[in-house]
Amino acid sequence: MNDQEMVNRYLYEVVKRVPQDSREEIRMELQALIEDMCSAEQLSAEEALQKLGAPDEFAKRYRTDSGCLIGPDYYDNYVWVIKIALAGVGISAVLSAVMQGIFHAQGAIVPFVVSFLVSFFQELFSTALYGSFCAFAVITITFAVMERQGVRLHLMPEKHWSVKEFAKNTASNNTGNKKLWSPHLLPPVPDEHAVISRADSVVSIVAVSVFSALLLFAPQLFGAFHFENGRLTTVACIFNLDQWHVILPVFLLWLAVGLVDEIIRLVVGYYNKVVLYGTLVCDTLEILIAAILLKVLPLWNPEFAEQIKKASGIRNYSNGDLLRYWQSGLLSNILLIGICIVSLAEIGIAVYKTYKYTKHVI
After folding, report:
1. Helices within the chain (DSSP H only)
2. Which of 35, 43, 246, 268 has a C-alpha 20 to 30 A away from that of 281?
3. Looking at the whole model, is its pTM more than 0.70?
């Protein structure tokens, strides 16, 4: 094999591994670099290629992704968010299991305890297993999308690398660390006023996980109860369980959007354009989905007020009682207005803190 054939093979092996739109440019630059190395350093083609290193390792320099589903830049935060979400699922599983155990337990002390424990562990196992799977899937998909879209966790200036810089770095890093780095890539230290409270994000993620799991496995817990013949029974559920197969997916989608927003805030850690765009998109979607949930779908149990009245023995509700206006849409309007106010406030805070406290807005 002559020198030209060797160089052509090397160029082919490098170029086939780089992005399609930059292959020709990289091929020409790399060919020029090899020629310069051969003439300036008096190297043979084989020696020049040996100095550049294996073509697959050299080509990795041009890739913007890690080649992994969850890359190293995201992995630690990914594991942490998974742990937080699973903790929330565990809490909801225990709550659901306790309530289901109480609902199904009956009889004297011993039969009551036995039936309670059987129902408790059945509900605990099924809720924890399925809830953990759902949480794992949503979080993994979120981080995978962030990985593929190249969402950066820090604000850092761009550093454009030439083929010669790639080659120099490759030749000087044969001992282990192959990742290109420059002091110019160091992100600025965020202003303390721009830092997002991790505790708030953690609490929100746990709350969303708990609420989602309860909606999935025990929506009947959102309602009124009373003891009858020594047994806890449901008087009425506030949700329209007859249409729950239509309502639940939209409800979970609304919660999932909020979860993605909190994950972005938790991972990035301070206000910048990434958080700002995430807040704008997620809060806008939350408002739209909430409008569908509250104004289009039959979310509320239409018989809830009457069922409470019948169970409690009340003849009529007073003018100040919210249940008097149960079917008027007042509750939906109040909740939708509240959601809009909170969402717009979050967007306003994100815009203000991003442009006031972020040194390099990208």
Report:
1. 3-15, 23-40, 45-52, 55-59, 72-104, 109-149, 163-171, 198-217, 244-268, 273-291, 304-312, 330-357
2. 246
3. no
